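Exam revision sheet. Question 4 asks you to relate a sequence to its structure. Input first:
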Amino acid sequence: MGTQHYIFGEMSGEMREVVSLVDLLRLRSQFHTDQIGYTFLRNGETLQATMTYGELDKQARKIGGWLQANIPQGTRVLLLYQPGLSYISAFFGCLYANVVAVPAYPPRRNQNLSRLQSIIKDADIGLALTSTDIKARLTAADNSSQEMLGLPLLDVESLDENLSLQWQPLKSQSSSTAFIQYTSGSTGNPKGVMVSHGNLLHNLGAIYSCFNHSPNSRGVIWLPPYHDMGLIGGVLQPLYGGFPVTLMSSVDFLQKPVRWLKAISHTRATTSGGPNFAYDLIVRRAKPEKLEGLDLSCWDLAFTGAEPIRAETLTKFAEMLAPYGFRADSFYPCYGMAESTLIISGGAQSATPNILRLDANALERNLVQPTPISSTAHSVVGCGKSIAGQAIVIANPDTSRLCTEGEIGEIWVTGESVAQGYWNNPKETQRAFQATLLDADGKPVSNKPFMRTGDLGFLQKDELFITGRLKDLIIIRGQNHYPQDIELTVEESHPALRTNSGVAFSIDVKSTEKLVIVYELKRSYLRKPISEEVFKRIREAVASRHALQTYAIALVKTGTVPKTSSGKVRRSTTKADFLNGNLTIVSDWSQNPAHRTDFKNLQSELGSMMSRLQASKK
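Answer key, structure tokens:
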């Protein structure tokens, strides 16, 4: 990727050249010093703190000044913060010193630190920036977290403010790595995506254009800043657009989802959003009496992405909140991922989502066949067209050849937002970022490399539709089945099952693929003797909707199905836990009566089979 230069207008009426986020914040602080850029709500309701562009620049110079004096440029620096304005200061402090920020969740007491330890080892972290309270907790005598992490911790809040005067401007490069975004690991071990300043500026410009943002926009974001959607969409996009954003903790949102709507109504936000589960959470948990007084007529753009978008969720949300001014055409389905910085495709603002109903039997054969509404119809929501400066193609994942119209394949992307690759992982970088698209004769279509998304989908009139995840695809008797469809069927089969908290996958039993269901029980059902009824309902629903026999079902304790930082279920991890006997099982069922009385035997047998299979492949 060549060095790109970006022209950013609206700076006191002047056109300015911007090649890095440092340039961007410096210009904001110069021309809009006292403009409030960020507001944070305590408990998701009460004003806790605000920060102007001038204040953010000063904090970034203070932190950057210390980093310049104490660690080499290019060092990877871990950010251990709760959501808040301090996190933003630390992130920009790293950029100002030309060290590479690595966002991560701060460890909780008694939390398994294996993921955090793997990130520290993989990125060769040299230092962790954190706050006074987190450092005190990590270094307490009864907490072994710091020793386990093996890192020096810097309490940024204790730094002398005069350090801001010692900071020296550095020559910014568009191609320089700004930060490393570790993937959520929904389909495997987390990998560090290297995102450059050029990637960020191109993607931020695309979001600004697609979302029709302006300096008059206003945002509300509860998404965690450690996740690409929360950081780029919630923190960096408002800075790029020069409009204010109100932030809140994702925990506060999850505890009381209506806080999100109240913040939008109170601040007159024009743009906000999140994954499908957030809208579903509002539908299920927002009581009518809690919605009184809301005015959502200001909400022009409600983006949704990061996981499968369900047409039913959008319909229910729009119907529920229509009396309070929400408009269905405010929905903005979009598609993106860390490997392409953030957004890959998006629709036209103020257009109702495009929903296609497809024949489920044709989908099993990787074919797109529209069908009238019926019990076998499968609804998919369009995620708009490609952003400017890139191309999207649909390729056969096995042959790397371009798919024909009406054929489902893997989504490949090439363009200026595609990241530099995976940190310290040349093999995976080559596989995922250097794919060559072939024509029918097996010859390269382009000299540009493509990035393989690992997602399945198709294009119709240049609009992208997502059908599933390649690694999650369930293939039984030669037919393709998407796990999210089976999971929705299971979820709706009995009220005891917790929403968005189950996994469907296949396992090899004597050389035959068999379907396994793992689902959380709602807390109120944990002590009720309803297992046999739930098992029966699940088996009947899956057989009726998908013509599949269920081999095994594990009902597990509330909150124990592994999920990513954005709330997506981690299917591969859940499958591994199932095979290794690490699930917190409340009740279980198996098609094989011999296994009914001792589910651990089943898991042990399957685990041994998997080990033998893996050994045979080496």
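Marking note for examiners. The chain is about 35% helix and 25% strand.
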